[in-house]
Amino acid sequence: MSEKLRVGVIGATGMVGQRFVTLLENHPWFQVTAVAASKHSAGQKYGEAVEGRWKMGDTPVPAHVKDLTILDAEDVAAVAKEVDFVFSAVHMDKEAIKKLEDEYAKHETPVVSNNSAHRWTPDVPMVVPEINPDHTEVIKYQRERLGTTRGFVAVKPNCSIQSYTPALQAWKKFEPTQALACTYQAISGAGKTLEDAPEIQGNVIPYIEGEEKKSEDEPLKIWGHVDDEKKEIVPADSPVITSQCLRVPVLYGHTVAAFVNFKQNPTKEELIKALEDYSGVPQELGLPSAPKQFIQYLDDDFRPQVRFDVNYENGMGISIGRLRTDKIFDWKFVGLSHNTARGAAGGAIELAELLKAQGYIQAK
Questions:
Q1: What residues act catalytically?
Q2: DSSP code for 236
Q3: pTM exceeding the 0.85 threshold for the entire prediction
């Protein structure tokens, strides 16, 4: 315990907050020492507050968190003194989230956020650790702006882009120019279970507010670069991505039907080999949450499927299948990622591990 970094989860009673709490149980580097939520929940024991609204299925509330008293997430000083850094999964409007996360940073408490509020703040790194770990270099400029020595905000990107962006990254040497991504997104992405969402039963909802813009634009920031003159991340301008995002009656797992054009003319064998060979800094460093094999390719035409593949590498790996030529695009494929593991809490935890390994998060 004494060797582990002390972690707070703000927004701990919501679905993503609950996922953070469960994934952090027995983590080798981090220990949850504070849970925070709205004023409505503050003062209750965590186990009492989530009773009747626990969304993690058969996974019980971790014993070491169950008896923690919930703090008011907006009482930044009270939370900050209990922790070395925080994970943010609060449900507020975007401007309020920005203000709150900045306040934690100014209290010299690093924030690793699951929220979208700061994703387009130019000096806030938005990181998939296997793809753009170097973007954390922008933190020094963010600290200059905030006037902090250890505090900062880092974010993970949108959950649905994890199902196709890793494949496009593995194929960067073939110079992808255009991509189309139609995502079929699980109801847990809306913070609900199937029981909580009668509107999705036997149904497909063809619109998820804000999702298509995130799907099209966020990969370009991830593929951008840190500009030392501007002291910010400058997004890439290609490949151009267009998308459609649908909500489907699945609990966990975002599936994508994707299409891509390349400048080069890769073979199917070259594309599959690039997927299977792709590895990143988390694998080199052996980060605790990092999948050993980041991307798997499945030959079976009936895979990937949520039922069989969503928990690949504890939900932290990406599954790709049905790679084939197309009449309009060069190639098409199906991808699958776990939206609350790789796509939300798990991805944020892996990012925090990277930040610790790089020296950005340390004990106070």
A1: 159, 254
A2: P
A3: yes
